[in-house]
Design goal:
Layout (H helix, E strand, L loop, with lengths): L43 H13 L21 H7 L2 H4 L11 H18 L3 E3 L5 H18 L7 E5 L5 H8 L3 E5 L9 H7 L4 E6 L12 H10 L3 E5 L12 H4 L3 E5 H4 L12 E5 L28 H37 L4 E2 L9 E4 L1 H7 L3 H9 L7 E2 L8 E4 L7 H20 L1 H5 L12 H6 L14
Parallel strand pairs: 2-3, 2-4, 4-5, 5-6
Antiparallel strand pairs: 1-7, 6-7, 8-9, 9-11, 10-11
Length: 472
């Protein structure tokens, strides 16, 4: 496929803008470019065909099954987009005075109130631009809390080895020392390992529950109690809130602050670099440390982003919340858990389960034995799924499971889709023993087969260079 610059033809254009009906004001010479911008010149048909061709090369939830574990490519209802497109929301200026944007303020207040109720928190901010940015904000709340009390010796954040990679990175960015603790054989927090590292220097614990292997830690109240008794605070990574929203609240588990990825749990757009948004909630005693904005009052100790965050993403999330309502939100969580357990049991008997127990919204396959017996890796299986029209699940994560494939079907998939997916996994299991070479070379029918990932990482080409004689 050619780049849009390579399709450019000098002088070709499409007139989409009406003729200017106001006086033309020229920029001062000092502000003008010396050369015109190197933009492609194409007709409207060329542009439409280019982006349609790009669309055909991409696999999204609108194309087929997308079981990417812990990232939750959830279906985004069209009504959410319609609400975000309303002129009063889409056309609002970030510098508009508060009296002129009372409707926007009501959106933020209402969304904050609903999310506080869902999480058991008392304060909420929408400033962070994404999940990791939300983690950063939440851990800064913990830092400010200890610093204000003069408890400067608390410089350690405890992070289980099954955590998302952003957790230790976030703690380090906030100036804390990261203390890693191993998981118990059941995939949950090892209580004895936790007790061994708790002390007067403990600032807090970062934890996901359900955890990254899709298991709800039955010792969660004991875990948060131990951390609190040591003087630390408990931070909830909301990446896996899908399994429990409207059913169990992080605040009731003993967590002091939480971040929610609106794109994971509340059906806002995901991927492609944005737009992202994250909600960060906290208990009463941390509210004074929340960032302030022009619309959401507060003391404003920290500022993590301009204005009130990505407002239109919050509009989408609120639309989703209102559409589902008090009954629909827990039903979505329960269906996500049901779908994951159904698919897990349908696959069982072929690939090994990392933990053979009831899961929550996601589960992990362990292909170590399969690779040893066939030579076919988790990567080979993931690539083979592409030939069947299925997006690969998460590969080689969490790190505590070797040859891992993590699957999350979400609540929106039908039984027929799950049966179809299970049949493909079982067929690939058999193919690994009968024709492993076919799987080593997969995918066979994708736009791109197996790129040289090492070369791409070490020698990335980050911008297009115009060849000699090319107009664009």
């Amino acid at each position: 496929m050619k780049l849009i610059f390579e399709k450019s033809v000098k002088g070709r254009h499409c007139d989409l803008l009406p003729k200017c009906d106001v006086d033309l004001v020229e920029l001062p010479e000092s502000l003008r470019r010396e050369t015109a911008p190197a933009l492609p010149e194409l007709s409207e048909v060329d542009v439409a065909r280019h982006y349609t061709e790009l669309n055909h090369r991409v696999h999204g939830v609108n194309c087929g099954f997308y079981p990417l574990g812990s990232c939750t490519m959830k279906y985004n209802p069209r009504i959410d987009e319609d609400m975000a497109s309303l002129p009063g929301f889409a056309g609002v200026h970030p510098l508009a005075p508060a009296y002129a944007v009372e409707g926007c303020r009501e959106v933020l207040d209402t969304a904050a109130r609903y999310l506080c109720e869902l999480t058991g928190m008392q304060g909420m901010t929408f400033q962070p631009a994404a999940g990791a940015h939300g983690e950063f904000t939440g851990v800064l709340l913990i830092k400010q809390y200890h610093d204000k009390r003069g408890d400067v010796k608390r410089r350690k954040i405890i992070v289980p080895d099954s955590a998302h990679g952003t957790n230790p990175a976030t703690a380090a960015m906030c100036g804390f020392e990261v203390v890693n603790i191993p998981s118990a054989p059941n995939g949950c927090v090892d209580l004895e390992a936790l007790k061994a590292v708790l002390g007067e220097d403990t600032a807090g614990l970062m934890l996901t529950n359900p955890n990254t292997v899709g298991i709800f830690d039955e010792n969660i109240l004991e875990i948060t109690r131990l951390v609190h008794e040591a003087g630390g605070l408990c931070y909830y990574d909301g990446a896996n809130l899908n399994a429990i929203m409207g059913v169990v609240r992080p605040g009731d588990m003993g967590f002091d602050c939480v971040h929610m990825n609106l794109h994971k749990t509340f059906a806002t757009p995901h991927g492609g670099g944005g737009p992202g948004a994250c909600a960060v909630g906290c208990k009463d005693f941390l509210c004074e440390f929340l960032p302030a904005s022009a619309l959401m009052e507060g003391p404003g100790h920290i500022q993590v982003r301009s204005f009130a965050g990505n407002f239109l993403v919050v509009v989408r999330a609120l639309s989703y919340l209102l559409s589902l309502g008090r009954e629909g939100i827990p039903e979505a969580a329960q269906n996500a858990v049901l779908n994951a357990n159904y698919l897990m049991r349908r696959i069982q008997g072929s690939f090994d389960l990392a933990f053979d127990r009831v899961c929550m919204h996601e589960f992990v396959l362990d292909l170590s034995r399969f690779k040893k017996e066939t030579g076919v890796s988790a990567l080979d299986v993931a690539k083979s799924l592409i030939d069947y029209g299925m997006h690969p699940p998460t590969m080689y994560f969490p790190l505590i499971v070797h040859e891992a494939l993590m699957l999350e079907p979400t609540e929106t998939e039908s039984k027929e889709t799950l049966d179809w997916a299970a049949d493909i996994f079982r067929a690939l299991y058999e193919l690994g023993y009968t024709d492993p070479e076919t799987m080593h070379e997969a995918p066979h029918h994708a736009q791109i087969g197996r790129p040289d990932e090492v070369r791409a990482a070490r020698n990335p080409i980050l911008r297009w260079q115009k060849p000699e004689g090319c107009h664009g």
